[in-house]
Amino acid sequence: MSQESLLSELNDRSREVFRRVVETYLETGEPVGSRTLSRALSEKVSAATIRNVMQDLEFMGLLDSPHVSAGRLPSQMGLRLFVDGMMEIDTVAPTDRAAIDQTLGNDDPDTGLLLDRVSTALSSITRGASLVLMPKHEAPIRHIEFVSLAPDRALVVLVFADGHVENRIFTPPPGQTPSSMREAGNFLNAMAEGRTLAELRSQIGQQIAAKRRELDVLAAELVESGLALWDGETADPRLIVRGRANLLEREAADLDRIRVLFDDLERKRDIVEFLELTESGDGVRIFIGSENKLFSLSGSALVVSPYMNADRKIVGAVGVIGPTRLNYGRIVPIVDYTAQLVGRVLSGRKG
Predict the structure, then answer these.
(1) Residue ranges of the chain that CATH labels 3.30.450.40
(2) Which of helix, strand or coil describes residue 166?
(3) Rounded to whole angstroms, what are the CA distances from 86 to 36, 37, 257, 344?
(4) How many whole angstroms separate alpha carbon 194 and alpha carbon 143?
């Protein structure tokens, strides 16, 4: 049943009971009982009547009952319905706005340090864990080199036309030799001049096929493996995480689940998916429980928004992650404001 159909099934009393259950749960994290609701509803309704309404909502899949006499909690489907159809979005409080503005208020030339401050401020303001995905370096490439460190370890060095240098240790395909690495580097350097990394990757498949006779199989594998590294398929310092302690403090009863969440984050090999989550629509997106493709932990929620460069191209994202009982109405506008501000600041910079 669609969300529109579900909402149409709810009369005024059911809507108010459902809304009160969700809002109380988001505030307290505890199951909500009928007696508590009977004192809070705008109309005088008996606890027995409220229990019947809650049973109907549970039958519809919008509420869960952890224990027979423990009251009700919103289900994942219920939280999604509330977020999409009933939630009231707050405005960003002046103090929160000032704290975010302050992180971007100076002319620090180091984008990494600037976004680290943004992540720290976002965590402090929301009392959750913050995520910031930094933009890729988009300058043309001047030189690429592969260096063998051990049979199972290699280094790839990228020198950009603006002087920026990036290097990373990675695991090469088995059987690589210094000769095959030099050949792969020569092949890439011959076609890299004047191209950004993204442009080079878009060309690599066609070029490998056309030049297959000039490259042995091992060198071709190294090209693909080495460049794949720069497309986000390894743990990547582009992803800044701050505020883990906030989750540990607020959710002491769920320490094991929180640890699983961050273990999952730290070993994540495809952080590009974090950015891809935002690309199917503009503005803030909310992922609740198992909807959250980035993490295996079903009890988490992610509020994330992309930011764009001067060409209106998505280059990074900011977000807040925490338990499903986030204060969505407050956090959504904060994440949205932060993403827009980061985009404006970075759009005014070169490279």
Answers:
(1) 94-135+238-347
(2) strand
(3) 21, 18, 28, 31
(4) 10
Architecture of the structural domain at 94-135+238-347: 2-Layer Sandwich (3.30)
Length of the chain measured in residues: 351
Q: What is the DSSP string of 272-321?
A: HHHHHTTTTSSS-EEEEGGG-TT-S-TTEEEEEEEEE-TTS-EEEEEEEE
Q: How high is the mean pLDDT in each 10-residue block of the chain (351 residues)?
A: 76 90 88 84 81 91 79 90 90 93 73 84 89 78 86 83 77 80 85 78 67 59 56 51 70 63 61 59 80 66 87 85 88 94 79 43
**Where in the sequence of the chain do the CATH 1.10.10.10 domains occur?**
3-85
Q: At what angle do helices 178-192 and 217-229 cross, to 10 degrees?
A: 60
HEC readout, 227-267: HHHCCCCCCCCCEEEECHHHHHHHCHHHHHHHHHHHHHHHC
HSE at residue 101, side-chain half, CA atoms within 13 A, is 7
Q: Does domain 141-229 have CATH number 2.60.120?
A: no
Residue whose structure tokens are 């969505």: 328
- Tell how far CA 20 is from the center of its chain: 29
Burial class (CB in 10 A: 0-12, 13-18, 19+), 347: middle
> Where do the H-state alpha helices sit in 87-137?
94-103, 111-126
CA distance 78 to 162: 51
Q: Is the domain defined by 3-85 classed in CATH 1.10.10.10? A: yes
